Amino acid sequence: MDITPEELVEEVRRMARLAMIELNKEETKQIAEQFKSILDQLQTLRELDTSDINPFPLEDRDPTPWRSDEVVLWNRYNEVLSQAPASEDGYFKVPQIVRDDRNEE
Amino acid sequence: MKNSKFLKFSAFDLMSGYSKGEFIVSDVIETVLEYIEINERNLNALITPMYEEARSRAWMLDAALARGEDLGPLFGVPVVIKDNITTDGVRTTCGSRMLENWIPPFSAHVVRCLERAGAVVIGKANMDEFAMGSSTEYSAFGPTLNPWDLSKVPGGSSGGSAASVAAGYAPIALGSDTGGSIRQPAAFCGVYGLKPTYGLVSRYGLVAFASSLDQIGPFARDLKDLALVLQIISEPDDCDATCVRKERPNYLEFLNESSLEGFKVGYLSDYKSLEIDEEVKKAVTEALKICQDAGAEIIEVELPISARYGLPCYYTIAPAEASSSLARFDGVRYGFSVEAEDLQELYQKSRGGGFGPEVKRRILIGTFVLSSSGYETYYLQAQKARQLVVKEFDEVFLKADVLLLPATPTLPFKRGEKILDPVKVYMADLFTIPVNLAGLPGLSMKVSSSSSGLPVGIQLVSKKFCEGDILKTASIIERAVGPATTIMGGDRK
Fold first, then answer.
1. pTM here?
2. Which residue, A36, B14, B88, B95, has most beta carbons within 10 Å?
3. What distance in Å separates residue B92's CA from the closest CA in chain A?
4. Is residue B327 part of a domain?
5. Does A44 touch chain B (CB under 8 A)?
6. How large is the ipTM?
7. How high does pLDDT run on average in chain B?
């Protein structure tokens, strides 16, 4: 793969943004170094002639089985909520997403 | 240590002792827990030993024993569960800081099956973080050591499960296998490890890594124990849509056959440029000889596509699926979380702080091969290559009933030796990965010991849902080489 070390670092930063993972400088540098040797290894797959191969044959062959739609009683919501860093009134709580800009002017 | 004989007993030995009234469950569990407490200082095979839970369960089972109740098929047998399989009320960490304090409110299907059968879960086993690794060195809770030689790795990612069974913590453990994570550590620790056919065992309660590849399977020191556990955990389950509903055969019956007459065992005649340890080659030859003496026809096979393209195919598909599976760890509902001003920052900081280096690396590779710049070139090409691997095995199994292959290309490697070079450590799964790509069952078992006293394993592979053929072949080999043994702390050189 023809790619400069600077481009690799930029690519790793882009992937980290897409994957929502914060990386520090050191991690970014280390992963960028390994990225190239890993991608080079994956590139060997290009040697294979795969022109007439269906990549997803299972989709036609094995339909997903259905289970009957039955109500099962389960009452441990509090235990589930207690695993969250913040909850309120039976809901998971997250930082504010929508702000009211009018008040800030 | 009093009653240390219990540590070497198989599940069947223990159950026979209980039914004859020679000892009770608490005797066994107390011995096991005392031994674990001493040995964990060295081995670090368990992330969470379950002292209190195991004791109270033992009392409960002893009360049932005293009342003369029907004993389950695994009554009073200690088992160890890999820490990516949920246990109701007991933390399940996946070897990650991300889930360090996560207490699941439900047990996995396989855990329920074992408990219904009377088993006693005694601990949650150490593992590479989110099952990504081949040495158990990528655990956030420190590495597990190989009980045969503390300077060596136990393999991974189910290294804690394999080491527990080899060291005598329990005759049985469960692990998970996405690219070799049961079979490779089983070979490194000298025990049996089976990855069942994709779809035979429910993954309900297994924290997903790569769902088109993941399977749960058993470890044991004795083939009869292994077959029994397979029987118990392969109970069909509606909660995993990939778990097939057809009836399972009686796996124990396959162990009674004494001949391989009319049976064809395939082997790789030429490893070409692959670097295989001489002692591994010797073990394969020895096992082939045993099969031949038992009447099997030995035939040469070739797997050129699997050998050359299996690894790159897997290291495209598995990270792609992992990048999706691990998107659920967001710092909102459970797991590691960092306080943040807005939602985006909450995600990025929680995931950045909770995941270790190998997990981050694989998520980023997976994100890349699924992104617009990588999808066609990498991901789609790998999916097509996977179909070629499937086809290659289909053709080989027109000629052979089982394949006898190396389990790993090398003997257990030194701790710290490969941790810095991901491509090098990926080679450890060369012979196990294609089996996952094709969804086939594979068993690794110890055949001999190396000149340095380390276990040397082989791998048996069969057609889908033909675990019976593997068990039959393995039982013939076991009769010749003996069951796997424990290596106790005091016996180590």
1. 0.96
2. B95
3. 12
4. no
5. yes
6. 0.92
7. 95
